[in-house]
Amino acid sequence: MGSGCVPPSAVRFGMTTERKRFPIFVIPDVRAALGAVDPEPTLRRAFALSRQGPLGHTAGMLTIACNAGLAFEVEPAATALIAIDLQRDFLDPAGYVAAAGDDVSAMRAIIPNAVALLATARAAGLTVIHTREGYAPDLSDMHALKRERNSAGTPGPLGRFLIRGEAGHGHIAECLPLDGEVVVDKPGFGSFYRTDLETILHDRGIERLILLGVTTQCCVASTMREAVDRGFRCLTVEDAYAAVTPELHAAAISLIYGEGNLFGWVSDTRRVLAGLAST
After folding, report:
1. Which residues, in sequence order, are CB contacts of 154 under 8 Å at separation 6+?
2. How far apart are CA 45 and CA 278, in angstroms?
């Protein structure tokens, strides 16, 4: 299997122009009792209560120590690790970004942490999701503003930059998706933009996200903000994020702490691995 390949049995999700909603099945008597009340929130609360232990403590909950004296609780069955855009064109020394003259060493430095986090998340029973930014060969899924300002489609050493199907669009060899893991192809910076990611997460009962990937200030930050707006609790693994320059990385991380950690929790690989390994 080549370094840019996804296993045939990996679950691929492309773009969508409309929100898909999976039906919630309720037995007739319960539906009648609920009457005109929307059953979805009620069923979700019931499901959450069914997983709680004595005094409301959720069974199987793990704890990850975080910055600012905070702690991020993880229930493996309700938590996903999302590896954002670990693609060859961004991270490979032979990829487009390096060929364009940018130093990719800071981004490559997170690869060992990403490998460790992926392996530990899998062992702990978390859902693992991979994203790839990419566009159709004719750029038909790219809006006009991005076509004016973006270099996607430009020829590069691994094919046209960020075009689906080109070698550079694929994941780096160290972080390939495993069989059965979800791969979300996104035509934009944020992982929720014109994709089925929100449906995938809700269908699997996912409430909490652990995020890693590149680049900190662009696709990772966009995904984090989209997720928070949708009610997901997000943990940033700051030494498994990277940008082309440390200044961009530091500025993006600092924004998470604003207004009382408005955008969630921040930790590092060592503490995340320790917390997940306590299963």
Report:
1. 96, 160, 161
2. 27
Active-site pick, 66, 175, 219, 234: 219
Count CB-CB contacts under 10 A for residue 6: 20
Active-site choice (92, 186, 218, 234):
186
Task: Say yes or no to pLDDT of 24 above 70.
Answer: no
pLDDT digits (tens, 9 = 90+) for 104-142: 999 999 999 999 999 999 999 999 999 999 999 999 999
- Contact at 8 Å (CB) between 95 and 89? yes
Read off the tokens for 160: 């046209």
CATH superfamily of 11-17+60-276: Isochorismatase-like (3.40.50.850)
Q: Residue 148's CB: how many other CB atoms inside 10 A?
A: 8
CA 136 to chain centre: 21
What predicted TM-score, i.e. pTM, was given to this entire model?
0.79
Domain locations in the chain as residue ranges: 11-17+60-276
